[in-house]
Amino acid sequence: MADELERARKREAKLVAVFSAIDARDDAQIALGQALVELRDLGVVQADLAEMTGLSAREVGAAIRAAKNRTGRDDENPEDAGEDQAATTSDHNGAESH
Known about the structure:
Layout: H1 2-41, H2 46-53, H3 57-71, H4 81-86
């Protein structure tokens, strides 16, 4: 019985560690996105951000979206249009729907 209780306590402690790490990862993603947004605002195009940092274009876009979601920033940057257009769906005859 004591062993089961000890195992339950250890599992609980490890779950707390997991959730703390997830929160830290989310915070780091937001901080990354904010720094990338600031660089972009200084005139660095998004493709160059990926090349300069060694991140993929998808990772750069995800970080920027995370920062925008956290800060509630709605101003669209023309460089984001490509990602948004890629996410649009097509109707049955191939025309893009927006």
